[in-house]
Amino acid sequence: MSSGTRMLLHACCGPCSLEPTRIFAQEDVEFSIHYANSNIFPPEEYEHRLSTLREHVCDPQDIELIEGDYDPSAWEREVAVYGTDREARCRACYRLRFEETAREAKKRGFDTISTTLTISPYQLTDVILEELEAAAARHGLNVDARDFRDRYQEATRISREKGMYRQNYCGCRFSIAEAQAQREAAKMQRDQEKHIRHVALLCMAAEGVRTQK
Ligand code: SF4
Fold this sequence. Notes:
Helix content is 59%, strand content 9%. It is of the alpha/beta class. The longest helix has 40 residues, at 173-212. The radius of gyration is 22 Å and the shape is elongated.
């Protein structure tokens, strides 16, 4: 039996949509997916994420997929102005996308909006939920403001098992460089730890030789 809710679920990509769609379906929520992501750069990446979402999430579960207007110039105008100020930039980015989802929901007669973005521990969860609620309020809609972070490990496992495309950056041109810098910092940290372990082993071996003499 339907829960009575008609929800438009903003989705950022296939892997992040696996668990939220499973959970909403289990709760008998009637929902469609809205792929509204003008943040994604370059356009081929936008298409790749969209086709992954369609192939692995929407088609197998027979979920309606509504594509938003891909408008990178709007993103440049309203979001890129914040540059490397990550919190301000991401807030503006969530606002742009949720505003589009809320407008679409109102136009098509949905009563509630939600998003898959909160599954990622790399996103700013509190900011996402604030902007989602604000977008819903502006359009007189209900909001299902859920934090899906506890499903991240499972979503990662399933998406790997299915061989889904898994991007290694959030989406915008700034995040390509930020993700690269994070990977390099993590590698440097691992290399340093490896070096420290190696030196410790050498010291222990030298100590062993001394005590045998
Ligand atoms: S890092 Fe992600 S959420 Fe933040 S501005 Fe870039 S695409 Fe948007």
